[in-house]
Predict the 3D structure of the following.
Amino acid sequence: MKTRKLGNLQVPAIGYGAMVLSPGIYGDIDDTRAAAALKAALDGGATHVDTSDAYGVDGHNERLVGRAIKGRREEVVVATKFGLAIPEGEQSRSQPVGFAFGELRVNAEPRLVRRYAERSLRNLDTDVIDLYYAHYPDPGVPIEDTVGAMADLVRDGLIKHVGLSNVTAAQLRAAHAVHPVTAVQNEWSMWRPVDPGLLSAARDLGVGIVAWSPLGTGFLTGTVQSLGEGDFRHNAPRFSADNLAANNDRYAPIRSLAAQLGITPAQLALAWLLHQDDHVATIPGSRTPSHIEENLAAADLTLHPDTLARVDEALTTFEVTGGTLL
């Protein structure tokens, strides 16, 4: 697997987003199937595994990852996040999002950061977290204060690298002034461009970008025609029946280009994204080993400048119907 540098942390160009392995995301799934998917990802070279204490119930997703990396911990970069799985009795603040329910509840107060980390360490059954993210900025807490508490975790050996997720350029710059930020994780794909200001700030500061939802929550695979019962994407406006049909129609030129190149739409979407910056890494998630293998093969694709130009031209007419997740 080709690698990318996130700050001074080296990771595979294509890692693995484990969120899809907990029930209630893309519908039901059992732990046996989840374990098989994680094994396929690690065996295929996707040794940058991303999770969160908020995925699944009571740390379910982190515990899945912890079991998967047992016996091979040294080969894996483990990334997790905090701030949404708020301890009982603690207050929370509203973070508006584009989902149908309209908000997430966040608490990233400095006094809770160590408590969050210690819980994740137990769930993951490890003594250190390689890359630790504040999942969302807390509207009631300066980002500098949250990162100051994360810096204490680095000093004490609980985490190796500080990350931020879903932040603005200004928040990144303010945080980086307190402690070096290794990576920013933000949504970025063919149907959700990265904020140019955030990309510029990351480049200026030497911060890598981890693109979450690089396949548009599955849409860019070109295979999503409808959603099953219990699929979390029912909360995303872009996946309503009418919007999904319209978006599939508008995405046809990209699917056609992938066919001409002899690759899948998912591979084209991932390869295109990796060509956007030398310090971007992706974390697609899939439950199916064959799809995981397909995704990982995209790391070896080199797209000709003419192909990239054709993609960009097609994307200029790809007006997405329905709101975004953030």
